[in-house]
Amino acid sequence: MAERARSVAENAPGAFFVDSTCIDCDTCRQLAPATFADAGDHSYVRLQPRDQSDTRAALRALVSCPTASIGAEDKRGAAMAADDFPLELDRHVYYCGFNSEKSFGGNSYFVDDPAGNWLIDSPRYVERLASRFEDLGGIRYIFLTHRDDVADAEKWAARFGATRIIHRLELKAQPGAEWVIDGYDPVELVPGFLAIPTPGHTRGHTVLLYQDCFLFTGDHLSWDRTDLCLSASRDYCWYSWRDQVESLGKLQNYSFEWVLPGHGQRVQLSRAQMRREMARLVDRELCHQRPRMTSVPT
């Protein structure tokens, strides 16, 4: 639980605060950008909520914070904010909230599909959220993009009798997974759900494309709120940056409207704009990899 005595110095005076246990996962800044901002290695309250909408968003951030680093003098609306999750983004695709410290605050998503519902990566296990999933028909499949973001997947699988799907090269993080992907070729798991191996961040990192529209990208790429472009992080590439750039190139063969990352900002663009942004991202990263020409003295 957040403690006022450990409040970070940058907080604006008022009811909400962030304390020094913040791990800078970005969850609060995604959920309540009007209230929370980035201080470099932690979040802080930039502006106190100005109306009911801002307050509700800040309370969603409070209940989703993986380290309980957000405090408020009045939490009476927190229960209603918690019941907002899973939060619908578009056409039966939801953001789960309740981010887990086990995945460094990684985002997870829920897909309400007539043939069986999906969980993409894992939130922390909370019975309140489990009850909401049950109301929506439960969970049939749990798709895990890579080893970093499995969090409480085993608990969710046990709760709903769900099938966990993960690449063999990531299996050490979820050894009991029921469905194991091999190789680097795309695999249609069931109609409408295409697994695309994208090695780089980790050896077996895999993204999921749903209905040729929603790309769940794990730690492969996200939207840069500052530069307003698609971005991939070399600083947090654990296996091979060269492979990650090659994997980005593979995604140019697909059409989609949404990028839904495990870490980082999600974004919806037109298909044409998304194609342009993907091409720009790949061009930038390939340019950085090319050896620089040096002049030769004559």
Structure, briefly:
This protein is an alpha+beta fold. The chain contains 7 helices and 19 strands. The strands form 5 sheets. Strands 5-6-7-8-9-10-11 form a 7-stranded mixed beta sheet, covered by helices on one side. A 6-stranded mixed beta sheet has the order 12-13-14-15-18-19, with no helix packed on it. A two-stranded antiparallel ribbon has the order 1-4.
What does this entry look like structurally?
- The chain is α+β, with helices and mostly antiparallel strands and 298 residues long.
- The protein folds into two domains: 4-81, Alpha-Beta Plaits; 98-289, Ribonuclease Z/Hydroxyacylglutathione hydrolase-like (Metallo-beta-lactamase, Chain A, 4-Layer Sandwich).
- It has helices spanning 27-31, 52-64, 78-82, 127-135, 153-160, 241-250, 271-289, and strands at residues 16-18, 36-38, 43-45, 70-72, 87-90, 93-95, 109-111, 118-120, 141-143, 163-167, 179-181, 187-190, 193-197, 206-210, 214-218, 222-224, 229-231, 258-261, 267-268.
- β18 (258-261) and β19 form a beta hairpin.
- α6 (241-250) runs antiparallel to α7.
- The longest helix is centred in the last third of the chain and has 19 residues, at 271-289.
- The radius of gyration is 20 Å and the shape is globular.
CATH superfamily of the largest domain: Ribonuclease Z/Hydroxyacylglutathione hydrolase-like
Largest sheet: 7 strands, mixed
Structural class: alpha+beta
| Coarse shape | globular
Count of distinct structural domains: 2
Rg computed from alpha carbons, rounded to a whole number of angstroms: 20 Å
Assigned CATH class of the largest domain: Alpha Beta
